[in-house]
Amino acid sequence: MLIVGLTGGIGSGKTTVSNLFESLGINIIDTDVIAHDLVNSDPSVLKEIVTLFGDDILNDDNSLNRKKLAKIVFNNKEYKQQLEDILHPKILDQVKNKIQNYKLRSTPPKYIIVVIPLLFETDFNDLIDRVLVVLTNEATRIQRIQQRDHRSMDEIRSIINSQVNDEIRIDEADDIIENNHDLAELKQQIKQLDEKYSNSAIHDK
Ligand code: ATP
Hints:
alpha/beta; five-stranded parallel beta sheet; binds adenosine-5'-triphosphate; Rossmann fold; 56% helix
């Protein structure tokens, strides 16, 4: 079973791409979804976060105020590291478990996709066999994010600047998807990659 790590900058189209693979019947493990679920389903995780950041990080209904947390860690490297120290080992465990479950199936899938937005900023590299990068030019990303989130241009730019740049992503990529055009064109690229990943020859590389 080939394990493909899907990554790319903010707004590049990771979710769109993983949805297209999913529509072809491919199993997806999304580390963002796992991180989200961890906080919702494991009270000890929320407790650790509150111990670190105080009650102010909670909404009135005692749920996590994710926007506030994101703002705090974005502006403070030490806090960011501390939050990652809480979440990453747990996310990693869950990803490993999920991969193991797929491998143990009587007929394991040919390949699965693991969505790891910060693949090059974290230590999830050991898990995966191939790196698939989504590249979208910056102007298009900004335009799409603004349509999706109504964030300011400055906010989007500062997030883009806090992430690794596309040169590094290209250097590390085994496969690249260019997502500068419409969905039909994107679908075509996904179809070709699906054929490539389903072909046994690539599994021996
Ligand atoms: P984030 O890093 O914020 O999680 P992402 O990389 O998962 O973002 P998406 O949410 O998939 O990116 O895409 C960003 C926005 O661009 C979404 O609103 C999506 O619908 C839109 N989008 C992605 N690809 C295309 C495309 N080829 N044509 C038109 N719109 C697109």
